[in-house]
Design brief:
The protein is an alpha/beta fold. It is built from 13 helices and nine strands. Helices cover 42% and strands 13% of the residues. A hairpin with a 4-residue loop joins β5 and β6. α5 runs antiparallel to α8. It is globular and about 85 Å long. One of its GO terms (cellular component) is mannan polymerase complex.
Length: 323
């Protein structure tokens, strides 16, 4: 079988091409060099003035604006989303738990309800992802955004999360390397040679997989990509058994650009389970841990977040009184 060969290109243009090019040239359309220079300079000056005004008044490109002020706000913003149907008294106590901690360490807080995010028929737990983007918009100069589920408490308010785990040195010290992303036998493992200053998302895992009750994301262009990828409608409509939790496991294992920015840290550092973990396991809450988490306490039935958290609230008050 023979295939038609494409015509060869030649470095010698046909005579008619040269004649047409010459015949179309008309000196009267040339712009004098001095005038052309003035026009170009005027255009550049106009564009520079527009860019400067947009940058000064916050209407310009987000990248330029962030590069000038990033890191000048609260170092950490604590983000929590509540079900609007939750008990108002309990919601108030959880908010105060975050607010008092934030005031103590110079952080900020961001609270919202699940109904304010358009997640359509997806589980309400998906609302944490747009809530983080929302918080980043309202706090454009902050660095870290710590999502802490409403089913978790800051149990040791004296511990600042910045020096506790978010500093590059602490991340390098504590990150779990060369371990399956999804235990016990995922073939995708955490990278072994990551530097702390390159980490943009900090998560924990329990014996079943990645946990999404308490995790931190560093603000930046990469964070927007990460959150947008996570919130993709394909994943929200896929009907994962654990909704956004399993979706996160999927993108971490299939997208090297995400795994390369992720630090997996021991659960006890930011997400100890007060309920739902074997006391012999490393992730079980011990007195002095930063966070006490009660996963599933908001699912109804015989469990109650307010009742399960009550002794921890009392312990926090005692600790404050002793300081």
């Amino acid at each position: 079988m023979h295939f038609a060969m494409p015509p060869r290109k030649t470095s010698r243009p046909p005579p008619y091409a040269v004649r047409n090019a010459r015949s179309s040239f008309n000196p009267q359309y040339l712009i004098p060099r001095d005038r052309l220079r003035r026009v170009v300079l005027a255009i550049l000056g106009f564009l520079a003035a527009v860019w400067t005004l947009r940058w000064m008044f916050g209407g310009g490109g987000e990248i330029g604006y962030e590069s000038a002020v990033a890191g000048s706000g609260a170092p950490v913003v604590i983000v929590t989303v509540f079900d609007e149907k939750a008990d108002k008294g309990w919601v108030g106590r959880v908010k105060r738990n975050r607010e008092e901690y934030a005031r103590r360490h110079g952080y900020a807080t961001f609270f919202n309800t699940t109904s304010n995010y358009n997640i359509k028929t997806s589980p309400l737990s998906w609302s944490k992802v747009p809530a983080l983007r929302h918080a980043m918009t309202l706090h454009p100069t902050s660095t870290w955004f710590w999502y802490l589920d409403s089913t978790a408490l800051i149990a040791n308010p004296s511990v600042p999360i910045t020096s506790h785990i978010l500093s590059p040195a602490k991340l390098e010290k504590h990150m779990i390397v060369n371990e399956p992303v999804v235990p016990p036998d995922s073939v995708i493992k955490t990278f072994a040679n990551l530097k702390g200053e390159r980490i943009d998302v900090v998560v924990t895992q329990d014996r079943e997989g990645l946990s999404v009750e308490s995790f931190a994301v560093r603000r930046g262009e990469w964070a927007k990509y990460f959150l947008d990828a996570w919130f993709d409608p394909i994943y929200r409509n896929y009907n994962f058994q654990k909704a956004e939790g399993h979706a996160l496991e999927h993108i971490v294992q299939w997208h090297g650009t995400i795994l390369a920015k992720l630090a997996l840290v021991p659960q006890s550092l930011i997400n100890s389970y007060a309920k739902g973990a074997d006391p012999s396991q490393q992730g079980h809450y011990k007195s002095g841990d930063l966070v006490a988490s009660f996963p599933g306490c908001d699912k109804g039935g015989k469990r109650s977040c307010d009742e399960e958290m009550k002794p921890y609230f009392e312990e926090i008050e005692k600790r404050k009184g002793a300081e």
